[in-house]
Specification:
homotetramer; alpha+beta; Chorismate synthase, AroC fold; five-stranded antiparallel β-sheet
């Protein structure tokens, strides 16, 4: 019942700190016989890693993954996969000056309050770098889903208040902000650079969809599919809100508009609208699952901020180090990973129900 | 690892259907020696029960609770409390006409897709009536929290797009919509009645706050306090979005505005703003926890809707029976209950960390 | 993660005390569509209930079970079954005299040490009466197993050092000690009566077998089938040892004798001996699973015993009340129940593994 | 809910195969501030590692451990410790000849039946080598227990039917069989060598005690301390039986003899005998906890054995490779590790119960 574990029959357990030896994850419950390669995992890690554009942190981490166990030749055996990513570019010295200061918006104070001890080097376990392990596990999950015909895809829906216009999935990986819309991508990029120049940071919204999902996934009553997804996605650092389908907007609809009418689509029961975002009564309808996550602006900014020292003395802090002025583009693969992990769990769990 | 269970060291397991014998819950992990009475639980159930106003369902359920176990005299013993609520006013006949129809917005189709069998009487396990068990368990949780000086309070923040103006906690239980603002309460009530008259329904937003919470609750990395709360609240039927503190609005802020500066408040470290909603890095800061849940409009409406039969034939449906034109006011105590349950779990779990 | 729960995808959560309102269990993860009747459950409860022979407690408990949820007509729906058994024949007055005394061999002292409070009426939650809920849940498990062609059967292997000779399954329910051997049954009965007359009690060994189990059940490495069975059975009050197959005797064998050779039995791979008791490397081999549990003598005896009061004063105790001079025959259905619950869990969990 | 995880608030999750990259474990729930060094862990691993005596496998594995995370300086931070042990001396070629044969007594067949795929190199995940990760985690557990004044110690009680005479804890690590009795140690060693010479193997019994344990640990009803210990220890490969205190022998005692009388030992309530093995009603009494585990003879023997190939053809097998003629001495630290892990879990869980 580790708090560093997620999932019931497909479960991931992560470890590692920003400036320790490395990060990793044990992925248990992978069905036997799944073809997985280091390249499959590396591809996803490369989407998350820093230092690849001028709107992300300049820290240079190759994030090379090693598969330590669970494979026999190219296939999984049903035993746990352990994935290890060594840290390479740690400059703990950058953090010496703030070891006794609580950075606003960071977990420095709350970790101290919880544990009475804190690894101040790069945020330790609370660093966003922790999500590399999630992405590695998510890559495994995506391979399992692929065998089921299920696909998880994400993109940036909004940055600094700038929304996506038209959605072209082919654009997403072609711009540094992961916008599916070339136009808005440019505006978002500019806005991020402006914030950076002003010593500030911005936030945004990530959208992830799941296609090919059969009806019937998710469990009443506490493990509803949307509840599990909310847990999964809200556990990502920086996420302050999660919504499914119509989400907060559905609170302003009338029932006659919100309800998704059923129809028979050549023998398959479908709904003609999808306000419920593919999940009704906590169980998948078979339509596209639509989820959005609100990401707050990066807390590390170079503008001066009021704070206190560990012993409560008033202080000011200006954060140097290497940081992302907007974390949203790098959060996209992390949300995808958490959604994929959740979906595999539900797929495998549903298999227990048969005539 | 029951999907009808929630919580780690304080855990609740529920059962029951809308038109079966009754509903109930086993509450395990209650600390020994807590004073609890039937009245404590009944008070909360009375806040959720139907038939108390003309904006709620006319079904007459007294929702009388019986404590079956876990008490010795007036105190808990540390063994599981079992709470039972018998159903009294079931009219399954109301549902005969729709037993082969899938009601839009309801879990009829998805339960069938999942289980291949469905209790069509009043929605069975998928009925909102299931939440009575949550409220009963939440009442126990509130008693435990009371001993810790922690208070969980909720209200209606918005109904049918009508927002609360000023917040007066004294008003909440004085109006049928649980608005903390007399003025907006009247408007909300009118809007609900208008929708009902038009055979329609409306949704809204519930806000819950937790005061008196110490810093340090919640667990990195997957069991962050906000992740657990999101899981807990998103598992309530009808909830399509959950946000903490600034929530989706924080995605549009700059870091310099969003970050909550620390200051020393007479020896206690506090933040001068609370955009993070009392949770930073997944761990409580000691400030007020603020959570909002979006509730979609009640799916049961009397306007005709397009649907299909179980065997896929096109059909129209008009839902009679007894329903709430707006479930939001009755969801308030349910969200409170789920938040309270989550908080107790985190409080007890934190006790394991000591020198 | 309730300590009053057992199982992963098929999980039972129990409640209730010896002299409270009653006992019960929520059984979750029951596959949908299983035919279950009150009679199916009652039959198993009747095998465990007291007052049916002169070697068991004279307490008269009909142990009538009510199914509160999870059924639609005669079939399960996939939602949790709640089963309730009301206490009828409670004479808490019997216990007044010992409310401040710790009974040797009972959990009186350890519960006090754990919880700081104790329900002294009939042992409260620590009473053997708690196992009624297990048997009720086990009856549900047996129905699920029946659909899989798996059968769980138990008997008394030894009482007061008297071992069973030949095994005739037809004899088991025909004698009050549940011996499969008429001869030894008579001796055992006499020995129990002798102990009772002398104010004393005796123990014994229960054996349970599982037939029809496919190979492949159980999970490496911590949830090996034998590990789960040991957990399940050792959690029954009074059990002090569990062994599988050759058990402790296998520690004295040589490998050449112990190892079970494989052979091809008409296309099915089998072993010609079964020293491993149907479980090899923690996973079922497809042969009969054989488990034995050692049950210590009933702690309630009328002979005087040395003890202390709650405040540590030296005292003597003579236990009156209504007790079993030998609990072994009534433990047989309890061990069967725990084995059946474990097997269903493993069967359902194995379904997640497919091509 | 990984089957490769064990524990509730102190939980370990392991990975790795005999002939893969290595083995490892994530230890979560370690309290913050505990002093732990690589040497602390290495010391325990050295007790388990092969190649150190002529009664153990000649495979040369240094079993060097690396701590990948969870430490800040010399102290734990409360975040997960990941421990990695690289495999060094793998000779998978040794296994080529048996890749299509099922070795009797090994998990070859059952893994194939379960997963449909099998890593035949050295037994893969089913190898006893898996226990290195347990021992590493157990070393962490022992450090936590040390801070609580709790000590876990084990020894060989019996090998090949030869029992220990007198118990001298100072002798245990001085002889290759881990007997606390010099005399029997010599006999055991001779008997092992005789079996080896004859191409055979032997088994035995391990005893582990826990001293300094406070009363009150363990949880009613399914997570009784003895049930958790039985689960923990029975999950070790080769263990076929577990007993507590009087164990199977208690089944032959009368209640008047078995019951442990209470007395007041200078203000502390104690029992004058300890037939219950320090656990009564599933909860620790404060007396020494006594547990025994039966270990079957090593399945790898060089004598010819009957078996079948993967496709069911009759065959004979003679196992070469490098094996232990008696695994018992190396199982001692493994049982200690599992007991220590279980005890920490119970200690931390008990902290949640306060006034």
């Amino acid at each position: 019942m580790s708090a560093n574990s997620f999932g019931r029959v497909f479960s991931v357990t992560t470890f590692g700190e920003s400036h320790g030896s490395g990060l990793g994850v044990i992925v248990d419950g992978v069905p036997p016989g799944v073809l997985i390669s280091v390249a499959d995992i590396q591809r996803e890690l490369d989407r998350r890693k820093p230092g690849v554009s001028d709107v992300s942190s300049p820290r240079k981490e190759p994030d090379r993954v090693e598969i330590l166990s669970g494979m026999f030749g190219e296939r999984t055996t049903g035993t746990p996969l352990a994935l290890l990513i060594r840290n390479k570019d740690t400059r703990s010295g950058d953090y010496e000056s703030i070891r006794d200061l609580y950075r606003p918006g960071h977990a420095d104070y709350t970790y101290d309050a919880k544990f009475g001890i804190r690894d101040w080097r790069g945020g330790g376990r609370a660093s966003g770098r922790e999500t590399a392990a999630r992405v590695a596990a998510g890559a495994v999950a995506k391979k399992v889903l692929q065998n089921e015909g299920i696909e998880v895809r994400g993109y940036t829906l909004e940055i600094a208040g700038i929304s996506v216009g038209k959605v072209d999935y082919g654009q997403i990986e072609k711009n540094p902000v992961r916008s599916p819309d070339k136009e808005s991508a440019r505006e978002m990029e500019e806005e991020i650079k402006r914030a950076l120049k002003e010593g500030d940071s911005v936030g945004g919204i990530v959208q992830v969809t799941v296609t090919g999902c059969p009806p019937g996934l998710g469990e009443p009553v506490f493990d509803k599919l949307d509840a599990l997804l909310a847990h999964a996605v809200m556990s990502i650092g920086g996420v302050k809100g999660v919504e499914i389908g119509g989400g907060f907007e559905s609170a302003r609809m009338r029932g006659s508009l919100y309800n998704d009418p059923f129809y028979n689509d050549g023998g398959r029961i479908r709904t003609s609208t999808n306000n419920c975002g593919g999940i009704c009564g906590g169980i998948s309808t078979g339509e596209e699952i639509v989820l959005r996550a609100a990401v707050h602006p990066t807390p590390s900014i170079s503008l001066p901020q009021d704070t206190v020292t560990r012993d409560g003395k008033k202080a000011q802090i200006k954060i140097s180090g290497r940081h992302d002025p907007c974390i949203v583009p790098r959060v996209v693969p992390v949300v995808e990973a958490m959604v994929a992990i959740t979906m595999v769990d539900c797929v495998l769990l549903q298999r227990r129900i048969r005539d």
